[in-house]
Amino acid sequence: MTENHNTPAIDLAVLDMAGTTVADGGLVEQAFAAAAERLGVTPGSPEHTRQLDYVRATMGESKISVFRHLFGDEGRAQQANTAFEEAYHDLVDGGRCTALPGAAEAIETLRKAGTKVVLTTGFSRATQDRILDALGWRELADLTLCPADAGRGRPYPDMVLTALLRTGTDDVRSVAVCGDTSYDMLTGRRAGASVVAGVLTGAHGREQLTGAGATHVLPSIAGLLELLAVRAA
User: Fold this and answer.
1) Whole-angstrom distance, CA of residue 109 vs CA of residue 78
2) Lower Cβ count inside 10 Å, N or C end of the chain?
3) Which residue in 90, 84, 161, 67 sits closest to 120, CA to CA?
4) Which residues pair with 120 in a beta bridge?
């Protein structure tokens, strides 16, 4: 891509997984419900509703951080996180994990054009690898990162900056971040990315995405190709 002073070329695309490139289909909420029930939270109770509202509001955040907030002490948080991962893995193994339409093709097109692609998640490495294996995506992107790989998860900028460092990208302005949650948008803005694109295929809607700093809101990940092509031109 040709770079000019005002609009540096996008050399790195940091893409979220669940809700952005991977269909969620309510799997996070189902796995959370299983985890909460194991810790004695009755489905349908006011406490369950309160916790589920928090899970929805913080979609994209590191899951262990969410459970630390909900259950207080570290022991219960770890217990909940383990139960969540077991339930989510069962759903993935049961064939419930699918790619969003056009996602793999978008990643392949970006890489062919010379843009490095990094897939990020709020899940643990074990869960991220489970998803990658289920989709056959181990070799799809240049790099995959989870919160433990970077130090902190969203909404901190660590994963985006780790992606920049590990791919040898020279300038934060040459980074595009794309995700479906407000935390994805905050992460991109805090990292200094020049493109912070929200997609409407996941947890949060247009108002939440723009409120968190999205520079663009797209129908899906497929729209990122057109956005970057127009920007480069």
Assistant:
1) 39
2) C
3) 161
4) 16, 145
d(CA 55, CA 184): 15
When pLDDT is cut at 50, 70 and 90, the band that residue 4 belongs to is very low
**Alpha-carbon distance 65 to 58, whole Å?**
10
First to last CA, the chain: 9
Enter the pTM of the model: 0.89
- Cα–Cα distance measured from residue 231 to residue 226, given in angstroms and rounded to the nearest whole number: 8
Summarised one tens digit per residue, pLDDT across range 8-59 is 789 999 999 999 999 988 888 888 888 888 888 888 888 888 988 888 888 8
Question: pLDDT tens digit string along 177-198?
Answer: 999 999 999 999 999 999 999 9
DSSP-derived 3-state class of residue 99: strand
From CA 41, how far away is CA 38, in angstroms rounded?
Answer: 7
Q: Where are the alpha helices (DSSP H) in 22-169?
A: 27-38, 46-57, 63-71, 74-91, 103-112, 125-135, 147-150, 158-167
Measured distance CA(93)–CA(140) in Å, rounded: 20
List helix spans (H) across 113-205.
125-135, 147-150, 158-167, 182-191
> pLDDT category, 69, cuts 50, 70, 90?
confident
Are the C-beta atoms of residues 202 and 181 closer than 8 Å to each other? yes
Mean pLDDT of the residues in the chain: 90
